[in-house]
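Folds vary. Our protein:
___
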Amino acid sequence: MHPFPGGRSDRSPGRPAAAGKRSRWRKELKEWALTLGVAVAASLLIQNYAVAQTVVRNVSMQDTLVAGQRLIEDKLSYRFVEPKRGDIVIINGPESELRLVKRVVAVAGDTIEIKDGRLVLNGIPQQEPYAKGRTLPLGMELPYTVPEGHVFVMGDNREHSMDSREFGPVALSSLEGRAVFRLWPLSQFGALD
């Protein structure tokens, strides 16, 4: 006697239970592959266009940053706002063969001078508690006015930094992003000033 009216069983004719399990397994595998693919694509998009991790590779930003520290870089905000004085930026452009981490010290229209080992901006000597050593002109002609569409950058370790004093102003298009957070070492974990 069949459990269903009309003489049907709960199994389709010619379709064994193992085939149904294989079908469910394939469907689940496809769903997992799709989910993983979407996650990898989203991760790559975020890393290329929104946030990324970067490593400090030289001494030009000491004592603020030292070689080996890992930072989170905000790649998105400069698409909507202009950089401002004090921002720590990642430079990736024709100004240097290397990817650099520097501090914006002047923006378009600012006039730079260096007097008595200090940065003077628009006639006002700057208080720069993060700067290490004396600020020297390194051969640049002063006073200098930053052109439109550019920023002027320096390393915090002023006596040991290749920066705008040598390679000139940095185009806004060369700014890959802004360093916003220190991940490593854990003892210094936190937001950057």
